[in-house]
Every structure is written in structure tokens, then in C-alpha cells.
Specification:
Blueprint lengths: L1 H11 L6 E2 L2 E2 L3 H38 L3 H15 L1 E2 L16 H13 L12 H13 L10 H7 L10 H13 L18 H15 L2 E2 L9 H8 L11
Parallel strand pairs: 3-4
Antiparallel strand pairs: 1-2
Helix pairs in contact: 4-7
Length: 245
């Protein structure tokens, strides 16, 4: 008998005897159902508490992270500044030689060579006469005479112009402006390529520089077409102004 009692106890020890309404039961199925009901109740209560927490916490978090228009504007300025590049990282001068080249770039070269007395027909074609004029300029400035227009030759051929300037170099600026607004020569939307740096040319140059300044650190907006502005005109840069937030 003692052995039988021990065997029964060992079998039932796999099923704990919970208390239901103050009474104990040895029925394992009832015990499991009761445990499941208890756990389900706990889960439902936990879900309700979590839902209440999220209902209260999310609007509060949104209120803390909301920014004023001024803060948004400052953030936009900081983002623009972080995206700006130093002037030293701007594109280098293009290299031209007697072959196929962008017509507007060759026209600028021809206008600038004419500013040095070359007397070329400005047709956008880098032919033998243009090549000869390049070599003559290179020889006059102590450069390698190879007929190839690289950074040193560009630096020698450009002429700084500003409001009040006249001549072929101003025509190069006006022609570059028209190439960016889909016009050429004289149109209602472009500049008259007359070689006179007047108010309209001055306005365009200042607008071009202002658009550049939105992307390049410490870029001057002074209406003067010097080496830095010339390099951006010649390389075909066409920056878009930053939009105000």
C-alpha cells in the first residue's frame, strides 16, 4: 500500500493543484483552463494599459518634437550650408583643342581671343585660324605653344569685365548668358550681344553669382566677371537658386 500511494503521488505531481474559489481540485484539465483564463485576463489588462499609455504619450512626444517656422528655417539654412562646397572644389577649366567642342565654349574662346586682337570670325568652330590665334597667345605669354587650351591658356586669355566695360569679352559673357536661357543673339528673353556691359548684363551676372553663392562657400556676388566667375561660365555651370522655405 505504501508503494501504491507513492506511485499515485508521483503521477499527480506533474499536474499542480490550483485553488479555485477557495477549493482545491486535482483535475489537471480544469487547472489548465483556469490558468489560461487567468493569463488571458492579464494579457487583456496589459493591452488596455499599453493602449492608454500610447494614447497619452504619442501626442506629448509630437508636441515636444514640433518646431516653429523659425526653427525650420534655421534648419534649412544649416542644411544648405552643410551641402555647400568650397570654391577650391569647383570644376576646373575645360580643355579645348582643334576638334569637336561645345560651340558656346568655342565662341567664348574666340571672343576672348578677339579681345587680344585676334580678329576671328566667331562661329563656334575650333578650326585652323582659331588654333593659330591660340598658339600666338601662348607664345606671347610664355606658355607651352601646343594649340591646346587648358587652365593656363584660359587664365591668360580671360579678361575681367564689369558694369561699364565694352568689347569682345563682354560679348562672351552675354553669349554665355543667352546659352543658359535658351536664347542666342538677340531675343526677347536674352541679352543683346553688343559688347556693352549695361544694366541688363549686370543684373544677369549678379543673379548668376547669387545662384552660385547658394551652393559655394564664400562666393562673391559683386557683378564682376573675374577668373572665378569666368571659370563657371566656361565650364557651363547653370546653378539653380536655392528656394526660400
Amino acid at each position: 500500500m505504501t508503494h501504491a500511494r507513492c506511485s499515485t503521488w508521483n503521477h499527480q505531481s506533474h499536474w499542480p493543484t490550483p485553488s479555485i474559489a477557495g477549493r482545491s481540485t486535482g483535475d489537471p484539465i480544469s487547472a489548465n483552463l483556469h490558468g489560461l483564463a487567468s493569463r488571458t485576463g492579464y494579457w487583456l489588462a496589459g493591452a488596455l494599459i499599453l493602449g492608454l499609455f500610447l494614447t497619452l504619450a504619442v501626442p506629448a512626444a509630437a508636441a515636444r518634437t514640433a518646431t516653429s517656422p523659425t526653427q525650420q528655417s534655421r534648419a534649412s539654412v544649416q542644411l544648405a550650408l552643410s551641402a555647400a562646397i568650397p570654391a577650391a572644389s569647383l570644376p576646373t577649366w575645360p580643355v579645348l583643342r582643334q576638334s569637336s567642342n561645345p560651340p558656346v565654349t568655342v565662341r567664348s574662346l574666340q571672343y576672348l581671343l578677339n579681345a587680344h586682337g585676334a580678329g576671328l570670325v566667331v562661329d563656334g568652330i575650333f578650326g585652323p585660324r582659331t588654333s593659330t590665334a591660340v598658339r600666338e597667345l601662348q607664345r606671347a605669354h610664355g606658355l607651352v605653344v601646343d594649340g591646346i587650351v587648358g587652365p593656363r591658356t584660359w587664365s591668360a586669355v580671360i579678361v575681367t569685365v564689369r558694369r561699364g566695360s565694352v568689347g569682345p569679352a563682354v560679348k562672351a559673357v552675354q553669349d554665355q548668358a543667352n546659352s543658359r536661357i535658351g536664347a542666342s543673339g538677340t531675343t526677347s528673353h536674352g541679352l543683346v550681344v553688343d559688347g556693352t556691359f549695361g544694366p541688363r548684363t549686370d543684373d544677369w551676372v549678379n543673379d548668376f553669382q547669387a545662384a552660385i553663392a547658394g551652393h559655394v562657400l564664400d562666393y562673391p556676388v559683386d557683378g564682376i566677371v573675374g577668373p572665378l566667375t569666368w571659370s563657371l561660365l566656361i565650364t557651363g555651370e547653370n546653378p539653380q537658386p536655392l528656394q526660400n522655405e
